[in-house]
Specification:
282 residues; 9-stranded mixed beta sheet; 6 helices; 11 strands
């Protein structure tokens, strides 16, 4: 059983140092990056499959050399090895050009039983890359997966998926392997058997140790090594056009503020008297 998990680096908005070029494209090499939060659910799904069925878990990302830190973070959740697709020709790709590149990387690895992606990214919010990659690979896809089981003997994937509408519902579907899975943020791992819980603990310890030397388990491929046509990847292969990127202005303050120093006993007394009626008690 071989699972490939797709992950992406997204701007670390906590740092407040997101950089754009003059054309409005995100300069990923100059922006602090972390693993996309939704991708952790995809990694947990792959880990659960390995715990129960054995095999191998690979994690793959497309991005600049700095994305190695993202793969290191992903390996800490769980991965046996990792792949970085990195080349200037791949820069400024939209979801379609990204899907073409990722599908080429997956095909170069071989023919994995499962490809698993997170729901959507924190920077794009489109949720398109996973389904588009599945289309490129010509695989059946199951989205919004909250639980899943693999039957290798039958060659099938059985999954529960969340269907949102006026009332949220859960439906159970079955797909033949190899398949493509998009996990939902509601994905919940289940280790009911003692042997699975022990195996999970063992694998987590192994991958945490492996992540300390993730470079030993990293393979990088360029556009040339993937035999990709430059006209179909990166900016040239992206039909999406960003017309403009406008910063969100800081809202003006509509209230006046009075500064009171902690050692100003008179001022603090006024604050107390102001707050007392609002406290609902003595």
């Amino acid at each position: 059983m071989h699972s490939v998990v797709l992950t992406k680096g997204v701007p670390d908005f906590r740092e407040g140092k997101v950089s754009f070029d003059e054309d409005g494209h995100l300069e990923r090499g100059a922006t602090p990056t972390v693993m996309n939060p939704n991708d952790e659910f995809a990694l947990q799904a792959a880990l659960q499959t390995k715990v129960k069925r054995g095999g191998r878990v690979s994690v793959m990302s497309m991005g600049p050399p700095g994305y190695e830190s993202v793969l290191e973070e992903a390996m800490g959740v769980y991965a046996d090895d990792c792949y970085l697709l990195s080349d200037r020709e791949m820069a400024a790709a939209d979801t379609w050009a990204t899907a073409i590149t990722l599908s080429a990387g997956i095909e170069k690895i071989g023919d994995p039983d499962l490809v698993i992606a997170g729901f959507k990214t924190a920077d794009g919010e489109t949720g398109q890359t996973g389904p588009q990659t599945a289309w490129c690979l010509d695989r059946p896809i199951v989205t919004h997966v909250i639980a899943m089981e693999v039957d290798e003997d039958a060659g099938t994937l059985r999954a529960k998926r969340l269907v949102e509408g006026d009332v949220d519902e859960i439906e159970t579907v079955e797909a033949p392997l190899p398949a493509f899975v998009v996990t939902d943020p509601e994905f919940d791992t289940s280790y009911r058997r003692a042997e699975h819980r022990l195996r999970h603990k063992q694998l987590k310890a192994e991958t945490e140790a492996r992540a300390e030397n993730y470079e030993d388990h990293l393979t990088s491929w360029s556009a040339e090594e993937l035999e990709l046509d430059p006209d179909f990847i990166g900016l040239d292969g992206s039909p999406t056009i960003v017309s403009a990127v406008d910063p969100i202005p800081k809202a003006p303050s509509e209230r006046e503020a009075t500064m009171v120093e902690p050692d100003d006993s008179e001022g603090m007394g006024e604050v107390l008297e102001t707050m007392r009626p609002l406290a609902g008690g003595d």
